[in-house]
Design brief:
Elongation factor Ts, mitochondrial; three-stranded antiparallel β-sheet; alpha+beta; Helicase, Ruva Protein, domain 3; Transl_elong_EFTs/EF1B; 48% helix; Tetrahydropterin Synthase, Chain A; 12 helices
Length: 371
Amino acid sequence: MAFFKNAKQPLGIFLYNIRLSTCSRHGYSTWATKGTSFAQSTDTKASKTAYLYWVSRRFNSQAASSAEQMSLIKQLRERTSAPIKDVKASLVDCNWDIEAAQKELRKRGKVLAMKKSSRTATEGLLALAQNEGKAAVIELNCETDFVARNEIFEYLALALAKKALFVQNSSQQIPGVFSFGPECLEDLKLNLDHPKISGETTIQNAVTEVAAMMGENIKLRRGVVMSTSSHGVVSAYLHRCPRPGLGRIAGILSLEVENEISQLDALQKVGSELAMHIVAAKPLFLTKEGVTSDVLNNERKILKSQAISTGKSLMAIEKMVDGRLRKYFEEVVFMEQKYFLNDSLSIKGLKRGYQKVETFKVSLALKLCTQ
């Protein structure tokens, strides 16, 4: 009961009474004993007032200190986007010096980023950059969808795509298409202009810096550059776009005409719709002639075994296989597919003339998606 009575008292008085009773047991105070003088009583009241003032100042100074610390944590978090746990640890280690803590946090983050580089990164974004006659798409991976939606991650992906436009094809690949790995970009210089990540650095260092900020493994996985002749356009479509130039699935193709482009806007509209078709229909090959012999023979074996199980004659089986093979081409070959906006037309039939556009040729088509 005594405890509950004391609980109703102000904190300072409660602590003072505890201190006083402790001193009395050791013979240090006589203010409550019988025969205390008036002077002693006055001195006791003065000491009690002074003690309560000291307790009040102590608690107020601690509260102010905590408020300043929270403010520093918030400021450093806004500057770096690092996890709060790491932000606080850096400030404590640097005696709450925010500038020193920021440098320490970057060093610590880079070390942690290197340690996390072996972890699986299956989320991420495709970023697209285009200029006249050329388009570049890169894939930047991270560990979680949460980081993939972060503005710094998105900014880095777009910056890498713009840099990829200047990658030159030094290998004998398909004309007009250059697929490359991260090693082609890692040592290139990048000028960043973002409130939280700015200045000139290499692409590899920029990726490591963002990985340190996000606390996840981030890696540049691959890239593709597609170009066309002076008589063509490169069109692209991004699916599931969080913002312009970013997405999870991309369709990209090159359209060419025999003569000078007289209706560039109309041709670009055709290209945009066909790029959208690539994402929707998921073609594996551009033309029937592009289907490899291994794929064709394997598919023919599967179809023949299915036809044999029907018990029909050999001639009927051959006709069944040929019919099903045509159906297979309509499913996986771009030029044989039904146009997704009008299934009465095939892409092959569509290209003979569309909205007063001259006859065009689809020279290249690609579908890309994140891991």
